[in-house]
Recover the amino acids of this structure.
């Protein structure tokens, strides 16, 4: 199971890469493994401003549907449209081509509440 250093993580199994005031968000390798084969990613909140921990979309696997929670407050400025035709990319490359959204961060201080890779490994028992 891959848990790259240099990213931040949430207890909801999402990863965050922050560059300036833009954050890229996806689900972790652990999360995609638990979900199984992903068949659909839905994000209907593009161009909306949401608070941290609000639902920004859903990920549907063969067995289940899971809500996606926003790790930081901000405006959702981009959705990875490649996932519409190839949602399985989240399974094969969760930290790369399988990213889900980009956020314009509203409250940078919220990032202090995110987990480091070591804290996330401890959370999932890796």
């Amino acid at each position: 199971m891959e848990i790259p250093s240099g990213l931040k993580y949430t207890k909801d199994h999402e990863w965050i890469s922050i560059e300036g005031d833009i954050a890229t968000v996806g689900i972790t390798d652990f999360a995609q493994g638990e979900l199984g084969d992903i068949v659909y990613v839905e994000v209907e909140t593009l161009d909306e401003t949401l608070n941290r921990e609000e639902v920004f979309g859903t990920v549907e696997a063969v067995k289940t549907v899971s809500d996606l929670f926003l790790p930081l407050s901000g405006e959702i400025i981009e959705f990875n449209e490649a996932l519409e035709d190839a949602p399985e990319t989240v399974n094969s490359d969760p930290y790369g081509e399988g990213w889900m959204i980009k956020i314009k961060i509203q409250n940078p201080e919220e990032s202090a509440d995110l987990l480091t890779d070591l804290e996330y490994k401890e959370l999932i028992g890796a």
